[in-house]
Amino acid sequence: MTSTPASGPGPFFIVQNMGSGRDDAREAQATLRRVLDAAGVRYDIIAVDDGRQLPAAVQTAVGRARDQGGAVVAVGGDGTLSAVAQGVLDTGLPFGIVPQGTFNYFGRTYGISQDTEAAARALLAARPEPVQVGLVNSRLFLINASLGLYPQLLEDREVYKRRYGRRRYVALWSALVTLARAHRQLAIQLEHAGQVRQMRTPTIVVGNNALQLQQIGIAEADELSQGRLVAMGARPAGTLALYGLLLRGLFSRLGDADHVFSFGFDRLTVRVRGRSRRVKVALDGEICWLDTPLHFRVSPQPLRLLVPPEALRAESA
């Protein structure tokens, strides 16, 4: 724990996942301490070794932030940011982030730098702004939630990253290997806007991040600004067709593909036929098991994200 005389913003109660992110976690922590010490800001860093320890760490950070009128800050990849946000959402506390992941769609959307020092300096001048988050059943997601093939892609990607490093080309290579294997189709029922649709698909993804949707070429990305979420998926396809969809996504043309469907919605229920009561779901890259049916909606309570002023915002591209 570090405590320095209070002045300016804060205090910050920082939850850092030492096993998350593309960079050296100890180096990132040293950078955070240097910037915050120089600014005379009070802070505590609660470090954990893996994601299983996050709930207890978040509970500690939330309790201290409530008692001392502070903010909770998450340091790590998108999955870590999402897990910490889950514990902060209902409290109304300010929530800050220092992104450390491979893609960092959430941070980039709000101009929060992937560079640790720049993100820490921006945090000093940031102010809370309400931002939309998605819910599936009672679980929060910042970027997307998915079932079927996409969670398998994410699981395989983590294996490759642990072996070869957290780089984007490693993520692409692991996707190519995963798609080369045979996959079961999901038999699902979609219910939204008073309509029921039955179909088979390798995967369903529900998005809450305009930057990601725009980069892969999904036209409904603008619907997020209207307080909605966007569902997308693929019709049954072979390996070559799936490779084609991956390439279209890389060139921002996924929405043009014949095999792809997408639509915006306020509420969506997904029933998975022929399966047990629980289904594997990926929430911002982290895998969990949820009871079915799955109910998707926008959280009625926004997240109070600490967003830097325009002058300190990083490029989102």
TrEMBL record:
Task: Supply the alphabetized keyword list.
Answer: Kinase, Transferase
- Specify the DAGKc domain's residue ranges: 7-140
Pfam family, any one: DAGK_cat
Question: From which domain of life does this come?
Answer: Bacteria
The record's SMART domains line, in alphabetical order, gives:
DAGKc (SM00046)
Q: Name one GO molecular function term.
A: kinase activity
Q: Tell me which InterPro entries the record gives.
A: ATP-NAD_kinase_N, Diacylglycerol_kinase_cat_dom, Lipid_Phosphate_FormReg, NAD/diacylglycerol_kinase_sf
| PANTHER family, alphabetized | SPHINGOSINE KINASE, SPHINGOSINE KINASE RELATED PROTEIN
**Which protein is depicted?**
Diacylglycerol kinase
Q: List the lineage, top down.
A: Bacteria, Pseudomonadati, Pseudomonadota, Betaproteobacteria, Burkholderiales
